[in-house]
């Protein structure tokens, strides 16, 4: 299954607790779309966040974010895992 990295450029009010909650909402919805959100990274100061997700396509990955909490990624690129 394709692997994607998404980027959120500026999430207002981003905190560790808020992004943890958003990730948990993604996990609750992801099976409906055949998607698996693996990890996320964030920087509270800049409001930037990144998510690593396996999905059949970009649309499915975005659908999870849209339904779970509405914070759709600004960028979503297909990536390959290295060693």
SSE topology sketch:
Blueprint: E1 3-8, H1 16-29, E2 36-43, E3 48-54, H2 58-68, E4 75-79
Antiparallel strand pairs: 1-3, 1-4, 2-3
Helix pairs in contact: 1-2
Give a short overview.
With 83 residues, the protein is of the alpha+beta class. It has helices spanning 16-29, 58-68, and strands spanning 3-8, 36-43, 48-54, 75-79. The chain contains two helices and four strands; from the N terminus they run βαββαβ.
Plain-language structure description:
The protein has 83 residues and is of the alpha+beta class. It has one domain (3-79): ORF SCO4226, nickel-binding ferredoxin-like monomer (Alpha-Beta Plaits). 30% of the residues lie in helices and 31% in strands. The protein has helices at residues 16-29, 58-68; strands at residues 3-8, 36-43, 48-54, 75-79. It has a 4-stranded antiparallel β-sheet, with helices on one face. A hairpin with a 4-residue loop joins β2 (36-43) and β3. α1 (16-29) packs across α2 (58-68). The longest helix is centred in the first third of the chain and has 14 residues, at 16-29. It is globular. It starts with a strand and ends with a strand. The mean pLDDT is 96.
By CATH, the superfamily comes out as ORF SCO4226, nickel-binding ferredoxin-like monomer
Q: Let me know the number of strands.
A: 4
N- to C-terminal distance: 18 Å
CATH class categorisation: Alpha Beta
Radius of gyration: 12 Å
Please report the number of helical segments.
Answer: 2
Into which percentage range does the β-strand content fall? 25-35%
Structural class: alpha+beta
Mean of all residue-level pLDDT scores: 96
**What is the molecular shape?**
globular
Largest sheet: 4 strands, antiparallel
SSE sequence, one letter per element? EHEEHE
Any low-confidence stretches, pLDDT <50, length ≥5?
none
Return the CATH architecture. Answer: 2-Layer Sandwich
Strand order of the largest sheet: 2-3-1-4
Helicity, as a percent range: 25-40%
Number of domains: 1
CATH fold topology:
Alpha-Beta Plaits
